[in-house]
Amino acid sequence: MNDEGTPGTEDGKEEFDQGAEPRQSPGPDLSSFMKSTVQTEAWLTSIEPVLHQLGIFVESTRRSIVAPAALANTANVAYQATLDAEGQIPALAVPVLALQSHFSDIYDWHSRISDVMERVSLPLALLKQLAETAAPFLPANLSGLDTEDLDTILEMSQNDGLSLAWAPRTETVVALLALATREERVALLSKCRDDVLDDVDASLETVTHPELTDLVTILRAVIRTARAGFNEGAQALAGNVLETAMKKHGNAWIRRSFPQVTYPKAGHHGTIGSVLDDTDDWSDLTLLQFKHYLALAGMRNAFGPGATQDTFNRHLGAHHASPDTYRPEFVLPAILLAHTLLRALNQDLGRPGDGEDEA
Length: 359
Known about the structure:
Elements: H1 30-46, H2 48-66, H3 74-117, H4 127-132, H5 147-160, H6 170-177, H7 182-191, H8 193-203, H9 213-227, H10 231-257, H11 267-278, H12 290-297, H13 299-302, H14 314-319, H15 331-349
């Protein structure tokens, strides 16, 4: 058996020519962030007259066009509207120039704020605040869950080898949280199988980066294969999507997303394990890293070594095909893992300046 984490193997050997991103120096402190916020509020206040002037112009033009009763005929309507618009051009130029002069400042402030947010630490004591202000930091289907729920999801993801980020729908996630054993959760997912497949299919609509188009096409074929009841084919295809995404972009994405982690082991399993082990209690994560951590939590098992496993394992399916490594209950976990990785990569690849490699 080829081992993903063993040097010299063919299928399990990943390319690391993307390289690890250099460690980033600490960003600006919270005082800089607050100063930027004050500047932003001051700027918004300063352009209120500008916005008001724009509103006057728009309303004046609208009235000239939609009130023909005050003019003799259609030609007069158009003529009068033109005169009114010409009279407003000097007034329009002033706010446009004023806005233009602030564009560079807006970009600078946004960059500084983003830089701060990427480095705000996430002590466990602040997780409640994360849950309460989840929109920028959590997948939409997990928004509104409390601290205990998020902790349970992370534990469940690692134990069951699945991902609940972006799909399935919130109601299904909540139902899974209420169950005590893996067997119960497997039974629930089987019962909700069509809904889960619908949720993944809908979520893939947002994965639009050209580098991921082919993988989305194949994962949609996986969904069709699963709906038709060909479980072994669906599991194998989903595993190949997961492997390809990791090999092309995943390892570099992980290292960029978690620059504070050391990576002593090669291979998919080694890279994923480095993050999960270095941040075992996830108290050192930043707000913006939490979503990426959710994506990784269920992936360790998928690339884990060993001759047998009770959860989906892509490596065993590829190199030790048997009824034991291809089970009906592995299909949805495989699909959910591949889907979550594509969603995470879509966000990452969508950011300007990231090179080869967007909740």
